[in-house]
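Appendix B. Raw example, untouched.
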Amino acid sequence: MTVTKTLLGASAALAITATGALADPALVFDLGGKFDRSFNEAAFNGAERWAEETGGSYREIELQSDAQREQAIRRLAESGSNPIVMAGFAWGSVLDVLASEYPDTDFTIIDSVVDQPNVQSVIFQEHEGSYLVGMLAAMASESGTVGFVGGMDIPLISRFACGYAQGAVAVNPDAVVIANMTGTTPAAWNDPVRGGELTRGQISQGADVVFAAAGGTGLGVLQAATDESILSIGVDSNQNHLHPGSVLTSMLKRVDVAVYNAFTQGDDLVAGIQVLGLAEEGVGYALDDNNAELITAEMQAAVDAAREQIIAGEIMVHNYTEDGSCPVQMQ
């Protein structure tokens, strides 16, 4: 397996010196870093799984700033990488422009929709998975108050928050849900200090379970929760192992599956929109040895029953991004 890694410095030019074939696939991470233990790392794990199973090689790029997005796509496309997978909604605008310039290159974008004949758009039903962990939060809470810390204040993250709140009040109609966003710029994905501050602020208001949907910022949420002896909920990757016995569960978002599937399809990549929710096992919750003592049999049974009801259409979880509203009021 050969992996060509390129880190784009703030002003450095991107030089690709891949040793694999010209048709090697490529993965470009979003800001926050490959090893954020969350969204980007899930994407990396999908690429690694593909490489291990196939013996193939791939290219990868880490960015240092938004300004490098166009440069990264152009250099990968011109060097022959195919397909090129972009992790994160922020790639949408630049890809919409560049996809038509490279019609012989296939692209996959995760968390955004780009309507081009050579682009596969993968979006997740985060609200469905968040509903399940919201149920678990309310069942585990002793105070009746649970918290949510989001990363960048965008509709996608509000979709997590709204689903979480709906799940919490489904269990406890009197539950209080406190929600804070970290910021309005991409820096919000990588500010664990601020994540910890927001968590402690929510704890001071009575929250005893806090869900982080904030990329690398979430690591500060999980740490603060552990330090203050409350429970946290991880996101995207299974983060239960980061603080065993303190992380109640993790809302799994199978970004790894999206990357793996795109690499596997290769030149046969199917353009269009792919939606991954509970029915497609694109989202869910994590249960393992690290949180087994925190999730009772009754809790698991309730959540698993709700999962089946959502898939069957018997429980309708409102999608915030459809109309910018949430049926549950959050503080």
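End of appendix B.
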